[in-house]
C-alpha cells in the first residue's frame, strides 16, 4: 500500500434546494445521506469540491 493522504468528509446539511453544481459536488464526493462520512483521497480536485460546498460538509483528517 502506498502512503496516500486521505481526508474524511461528512455531509451535515441537505443538498435539496441547492445549485445543481453544488449537488454534483456532493455526489462526486460520494455523499448521499446526512450524517454519512466518506474517506476521499486528498487531491486538488477533491479539495475544490469540498471548498465549493463548505457550508454543507465538515472535514476531518487535515
Describe the structure.
It contains two helices and three strands, in the order βαβαβ. The protein is α+β, with helices and mostly antiparallel strands. The protein has a three-stranded antiparallel sheet, with no helix packed on it. The chain is globular and about 40 Å long. The model has no long low-confidence stretch (mean pLDDT 93).
Give a concise summary.
With 62 residues, the protein is α+β, with helices and mostly antiparallel strands.
Poorly predicted sequence stretches spanning 5 or more consecutive residues = none
What is the CATH architecture term?
A: 2-Layer Sandwich
CATH superfamily membership? Ribosomal protein L30/L7
Q: Write down the overall geometry.
A: globular
In angstroms, what is the radius of gyration? 11 Å
- The N- to C-terminal Cα distance equals 20 Å
Which fold name is given in CATH as the topology? Ribosomal Protein L30, Chain: A
Number of helices: 2
Number of strands: 3
Elements, N to C (H/E) = EHEHE
Structural class: alpha+beta
Please give the CATH class.
Answer: Alpha Beta
Strand order of the largest sheet: 2-1-3
Amino acid at each position: 500500500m502506498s502512503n496516500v493522504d486521505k481526508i474524511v468528509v461528512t455531509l451535515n446539511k441537505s443538498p435539496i434546494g441547492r445549485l445543481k453544481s453544488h449537488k454534483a459536488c456532493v455526489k462526486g464526493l460520494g455523499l448521499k445521506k446526512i450524517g454519512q462520512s466518506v474517506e476521499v483521497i486528498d487531491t486538488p480536485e477533491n479539495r475544490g469540491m469540498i471548498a465549493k460546498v463548505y457550508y454543507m460538509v465538515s472535514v476531518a483528517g487535515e
